[in-house]
Fold these 2 entries.
Entry 1:
Amino acid sequence: MEEDLCLCHSGSVELENIPQLRASDADRDRVAEVLGEALSEGRLTPEEHSERLDHLYAAKTYAELEPLTSDLPRPRVSLTKESAALPPPVRGSDTIHCLFSAAERKGRWLVDPLTTVNCYFGGVELDFRTAVLTQREVVVDVSCAFGGVDITVPPGVRVENGITAVLGGVDTPEEETLDPQAPVIRLTGHVLLGGVTVKRKLTREQRREQRAARRAARRSGYSG
C-alpha cells in the first residue's frame, strides 16, 4: 500500500488523488524536510522558506500542501545505491530538561529552529547526524551547571559557538566547510562548572561505505 505522501521523481510532493483528505503531522514533517533541503541549496531565500513554513503548519489538507513543493527540482540521488525510503522524523519537545539524570536526542529527529537545553548535575547527548533541520540555521541554547552536553554533527555542517563559560569550557572542532549555504548549528547560552563538547563524525553506515570505497580503490590499483 502506497503512503499518503511521498517524494516523486520531480522532487515535488506527490499527493493522493483525493486532495481534500486531511494531512497528518508526518505529512507536514516530510514537506518541511524538502523545504529545508531547498533552503540549504539556495533554491529558496530565507524569507520564502519562512513564508512556506507558515503555510505548511497552517495547512489542513493535501491540496494545501501540494503547492509548497511543486516548483522544486528533484532531490540529489546517490549514484552508488538506491537508498531505502526514510521514515518521517520524530517530533519531540523543543526543550530538554536534565536534573540529576541523563537525556538524549538521536536518530531521525526533527530539529526546531530553537532547541533549549537545561542541564544541571547531569548529561545531555544531541546527535545531529541523521536529524532533520526545519531550517538552514538552528539554535541550541544551553544552560548547564555541574554537567555536560555532548553534541555530534556530520561533516558539512558549520557550528558557531556563542556560549559563555565560567569555570567550564566549550570544545568545538575546526570548521571544514566554507560553503555559505551550509547548514548552521548556532550555540548560545552559558556554562558554569561544566562543559559542552562538539564532535564531527560520520555515521556507522557512512564509515562502512567509506571503508568499502577504499578497499575498492586499492583493488583497482592492484589490478592496474
Note: The chain has two domains: 5-68, 95-204.
Entry 2:
Amino acid sequence: MDLKQLCRLSVALTLIGAGSSAALAQNVDPAKDAKVKANDAAAHAKKAAQDAEKAAKEAMEKAKGGEPPEMSPEEAAMMEAWAAAKAPGPHHKHMEVMAGEWEGVSRMWMVPGAPPEESPVRTTARMEFDGLFLISHHKGEMMGMPFRGMGTMGYNNTTKEYEGAWMDNMGSMTMWMTGTCSDDGKVFKLVSTFVDFMTGEKTTMKMDTTVIDNDNYKWEMYGPGPDGVEYKMMEIVYKRKK
C-alpha cells in the first residue's frame, strides 16, 4: 500500500469515528441522563446528612463526658456573674426562720398615744424559687374589716440589699422596700418610700423584723404622725403554729 492509499484510509477511519461519536451522542436518553444526575444529587445529600448526624453524635458524646462548650472570655465572665447573682447564700438563709405557719396579734395605733386596736393575724410563708425568696400570705382584720395581704422578701446578690414588696386589699398601691439585716440574721430593717394617698406627697415608712427565736418573731412599722414626727404605727407579735 503506497503513501497515497494510507492517507485515504486514515481520512476514512477518522470520518467513521466521528460519525460513530455523533451517532452515540444522538442516542443518549435525556430521561436517563436526568435520572443519573438526580441519583448523584441524592447521594451527595445523603452523604451530607450522614456527616451532620455524625457531628451531632460526637457533640452529644462530648457533652455527656462533662466537657463544657467552648466560650469566649466575655461569655465566661457573663456566666460567672450570672451564677453568682442567682446563688442562694447566708442572707437567704436568714429568711428561712420565718417560713411556716404563724399566729399573731396585731396592734395598730392610729395616732401617737392612743390605745391600740388589736386583732388576730394568721400568716403562712414559704421559701420559693430555689430558696431565693420568702413569699408570705396574711389574713386578719383591720378596723373591723377583713384584711388580706401578700409580701415578698429576697436578698439581691448584686446590690447587696434586701428587697421586698407588699400589697393588700386595703389599697391599690404596691409598697417597695429595701434594707439590711444584722450579721447574726436576727434583725431586718427595711425602708419604703411611697406616695401617701391622703396627702398625695411622698412619705417614708420603716419596717423592723426581730427574730426572737425559731418559734417567735416581731414585726414593727414606723411612720410620720400628724405632726411629722416618727412613731410606731403598728406591730405584730408572731408565734409559730404548732
Note: The chain has a mean pLDDT of 84.
